[in-house]
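Retro notes, item 3 of 5
We never archived the inputs for the zinc ion complex last cycle. Fixing that now. Sequence and ligand:
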Amino acid sequence: MKLFSHRGIVYGWALLWIAQSSIAQQLNYCGTPPDLPHWRWYMQHRETGVEFREDTTTLYVPVMIFSVFKENDYVSTNIHFILRTLARANSDFRRANIQFYLFEEPDYLINDRWFSHDYYGGQEMMEANNIDGAINIYFVGSPAGNCGYYSPTADAIAMAYACGGHSATISHELGHFLSLPHTFFGWEGTEYFPNSKASNYSHVVFRPIETVDGSNCQEAGDGFCDTSPDYLSYRWTCNRDSMSSISLTDPNGAQFHADGRNIMSYANDYCPTMFSKEQIQAMRTNLTQLRSELVHERPPQQPIPPTKISTLLFPYGHPVPPDTPVIAWNTVPNATYYYVQVSRRRSFNGPLVLDTITSDTALWIPGLRSGNTYYVRIYPYNLVTFDNGWSERMKFQTATTSSTFTAARHDGITLYPTCVRRGTPITIHTNGQIVDAVSILSLYGKAVDYIKVKPLEVITLPTDALVPGTYILQLYDRRGISHRAVFVVQ
Ligand SMILES: [Zn+2]
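Structure as it came back at the time:
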């Protein structure tokens, strides 16, 4: 994923979001074909499945995320939305001891035909982009008119943006990917009317109709005995007990209510929260027996501990010096990326001043106006921790003096380490940009050192003279300066 900082771009995203939320009402819930080959395999081999116990080892499974945009609506930073969606999946799969992690950074695709596709276009998208070794998930505007679907042909998932975030749709489609049918399997496309006897539908329902007494639970419906009968193949709202308010009647005349807690039902989003033990056993068997290339014993990184950034390291209590419009914060253990937003508004609504992802712990903020208050929030994440939440809302002010420098962005310049032991030199890779001097400033803008350097590709900066603390490096070239923060420790 490329790192962008398009000003105001999230405003466009918000508008797109509103438009999509209204689309969400019109989307079908799920477009997965009802009869899944992996489910058939499991039903023939289920005696080989190992009974699930809640203390079994966790299976770590990588997911590859593709975020598809239309040419003109292209927006760069929706990582927070993607992370929230994956956090929902991990929450739903925790009891199954299955946890998903990012295979790598999400990939962005720009294609109008894929953004709003039919099944044929979806298959083309998946076959053109799927990678091996991960569950491929595509976020699009309209996945064949559904909230989501799993394609057994292309073996990938398509999700509508409008049905991501905290919705259970992602877990429902992952359930299909891992072989689960709907709890109402056989009723797809058939509308059940309240209180009508299920046996009236036996000529249209394409599976034996499950009864309340459990006598045919292995052969009827979804084939699982610990999921209760369900005939509701349209979206429905559960009552306070997460059950259907309408009454259903089984072929023996027994009345019951459908269970909206099950993620493979069509109950509305706040109802589903769980998979049954037999469903979990089927999914774990699917992973270990048919998809072992997706299973890892441990995650690729350590999780981020639940700590929050609460203060900026720079600026701290002073207005931002006009020549160094830089913010810096403490490293969060194990965080690889920081999603950073800067806003004029406390609420962060409306256009943002900065909306970007960085792997550094300092940022140069273009376009700040002097004498203003700005708000910052930071969302640390890595490949395995998606739900650490935003930092505290932090604010800073800009000084009123205007800058005497023309600021130039040096996007290509890399510098390491940014947290350095005193005496260890800092290495600057200029990547073709001509840097001919480096000024080292204290956090309050006081010049500590000024070093004329040879315009080389790699510049080495000694740190012997720097007492432990935070410094701003100003990198000069003929057009202007750019800034980087570094931390010197003893
Ligand atoms: Zn479904």
